């Protein structure tokens, strides 16, 4: 058996060095060749290669369509050696009118929709370039940009496109690289042209003036921009920020004083089907109390119909609530991270991005002019040789007929260049007409004039910027606001004022019964249920609490971890099933359980007594128990081996506290011996040699001590023997007191 071959080129290196070297290569490849657009043409390599391949296939706007599979095949075969699915996805996005403000691909067939449905397979769809894409490629054959070899060295591809159209800002871009990302919203091309023309005249234009010309993004799906002007100015000044976009809606009046709200435009990149699905889920969860129903009546245009709960619901209030709860309002981030002309990534502000486009157009103009001058010089050289031949036509014919080395003889006799001699030899007999000589002289004079003008252009920078301004004016005329494509779609609105909608205005007040089971399942049955015995539970489960409430109420939950949790009754699941586990609504640890549950009295001064199983407690005001988060509010501080054991309301006129331990020792003491706190461990209520606190209640001493039994409430008035001081041990209770050591 032969020994395996040993590789000769083995280098010993640290793993960290090898990883960092390879990861850096990957990061640079991702940044420069995949994720960040070029500031000059606003394209990533895959998009640039797509457009260039379509141009090579002669898929101009005026010609017919070709199958997308043909385009994708050429792209991955010649320029972009990646998966066909990713290339086709990029092509589809360039054709989607709801994704691209100025589509670069004219698609024929199913290219997806705003609901998020996918495009048809590439074998079914067809495509060609749009006029915008043609403007990006305009002049590429005139040495306007540099080319490089493709991955296999068999073809050439442009490094950047000439880009007569300001594509980066007009269509925007998004991408995530390694350690950096970009997110640029689309803008109106007409407004961009105005800003570019102004920047040519005033290179140090202020951002306030730029925002006058470009008031904000212009999204293909419309909507209303409600970001304050100063925030927009700051975002464009730094190249980072965000824009607040809202759906556009109108109020349609119906018969009998009813109305409905119709949404005609939704924020950019929001899938309509998912938006409606989410709103329907919120409706089912009773989180949109002012909304009765939602319908999608869209055809090619968006039409989402919202039905209010009743005609008294204010439309503004309803929409404000929807803006806060749903994607009818979104924020679009601005992170103008791009590759500059030197392929260096960096965040540019609006003025720098516009100036980079102008500088690129200036370079393209110089290169195109220089290229044209070279062509003119070559043609003039050829025409000079032809004119020399016309002046000596008989002698030229003789040399060609009688001389073996006619080319060398012509060059020597008439001081011609190699190009001129070759042109004479290739001249057809029909060109010997007198008319042809006149045409050549006219062409020669015309080219001389053009060369003079081009040389003047290269020598005068002001003339070059004037030419660029004329190009921008032509782009504005072609794609500006006066055209159907260029009309502004996103409305510039006023920032919304802070509308404070009271809970009662958003929630319809209805009677419900909160049902909580022993195993922790909670639900809200409609109406006030009096016959709790008829309630059904899962096998092995039973009723723990049945509380009559209203949908506008808040439920306070006291747990054995000493925390109080707040739940809106309107957010409880309906009473038809078994409900949901309460742990899905509050962050209640698995080792803790619900101890007490009651309806909060908003704005009341009601007081409660809370106590731990160690026999410590204090009085707290109910308003101090309301929690704003699912995590609740810690009120009773506990040690690791302790838990909350009891809670009691302090009734009107109550002046004493009754405490009973698990070992059936009863103690009654004055309430003024207890402190009132918002949070803490409290003071000792009763001392225990064994066991701990069983229950606590408050009472008016002269009225006696009351407790709950199966037959009703019982009261004992002869209780003076059990009255003592706080923190005493107490004594066994009187006859008839329940053995469970509970007051309720």
Overview of this protein structure:
By secondary structure, the protein is of the alpha+beta class. Among the domains are: 43-162, Topoisomerase II, domain 5, CATH 3.90.199; 248-327, Gyrase A, domain 2, CATH 3.30.1360; 509-600, no CATH class; 602-744, Neuraminidase, CATH 2.120.10.90. Helices cover 32% and strands 22% of the residues. A four-stranded mixed beta sheet has the order 14-9-8-17. Strands 10-11-13-12 form a four-stranded antiparallel beta sheet, covered by helices on one side. Strand 6 (173-176) and strand 7 form a beta hairpin. Helix 2 (45-56) crosses helix 3 (68-79) and helix 12 crosses helix 15 (418-425). The termini are far apart.
Give helix % range.
25-40%
* CATH class descriptor of the domain at 602-744: Mainly Beta
Shape: elongated
| Major sheet characteristics | 4 strands, mixed
Which structural class do you get from the secondary structure elements? alpha+beta
In CATH terms, the superfamily of the domain at 602-744 is DNA gyrase/topoisomerase IV, subunit A, C-terminal
Low-confidence stretches: none
* Percentage of residues in strands: 15-25%
Counted beta strands: 34
CATH architecture of the domain at 602-744: 6 Propeller
Which features characterize this protein?
744 residues, alpha+beta, 4-stranded mixed β-sheet, 22% strand
Summarize the structure.
With 744 residues, the chain is α+β, with helices and mostly antiparallel strands. It is 32% helix and 22% strand.
